[in-house]
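mind reviewing this stuff:

——
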Amino acid sequence: MKKKILVVDDEQSIITLLKYNLEQAGYHVETAMDGETGLNGAILNPPDLIVLDLMLPKIDGIEICKELRRQKIMMPILMLTAKDDEFDKVMGLELGADDYMTKPFSPREVLARIKAILRRTEFIKSEVTSDNQSSEELVIGDLKVLPELYEAYFKGELLELTPKEFELLLYLVRNKGRVLTRDQLLSAVWNYDFAGDTRIVDVHISHLREKVEDNTKKPIYIKTIRGLGYKMEAPKVNE
C-alpha cells in the first residue's frame, strides 16, 4: 500500500515539483495551497507524512504544527521555509516538526529526507510486531520506555512525544552510559548519510529535557558532554 504524503505550500511551482517527484518515487500525494485546507486534510484524512511550508495564507505552518500536536495527531512533519531564520526553524522543531529544509532545495534531497523519516518511523513500529521485543521494558530511574507500545512514561505519567522525540529518547536509553556525538545521533535517528545541521539534535534534546527532567538547567538524565555530545545516565541517589 502506497504511503500518503500531504504537501501544503502556496507556490504552485513547488506543489507541481514535489507532487511529480513524489509520485515518481511511488507515493500517493495530496496537496493544499493554504493552511486551512491543509490542516483540515491532515485532521480528517491523516497522511503518513506532511511536507509543510512555513509561510501560508489563512493559517501558517507554525499554527498547523501547534494544532496537530494539540490534538495529539503525531504523524511526521517536514517543514519548508524560504527564510534562513534560526528562530523560525527552532520554533517549528519545538512545536513538533521532525525536520526542516530551506528553499530552494533539490527534489532529490526532499525525497531523501522523507525516506529517512518514514524508514525510522516504520522501524520503530515494526518492533511492535517483533516477538523478541514484545515484552521489552526499558527503565532508567523514573523513566520507562515501552518500544512495543511506542510509549514512554516519566514518574508514571505518559509523555506526549512526537515520533522523532520518541525515537531519539529510545536511542539514548538503549545506549545508556555511552557518549553520543551529534553526528552519531543525526545518523542513527534521522538516518542522514550526509553532513546535516546538528542544531536539529540540540533542539530535540532540549525538548526532551523539558519532559524528563525536573530541572532542565541541571539535567540528571540527559547529560551534555562538552565538546562531544550527549549521554543518557541513570540518576544518582543524591541527585
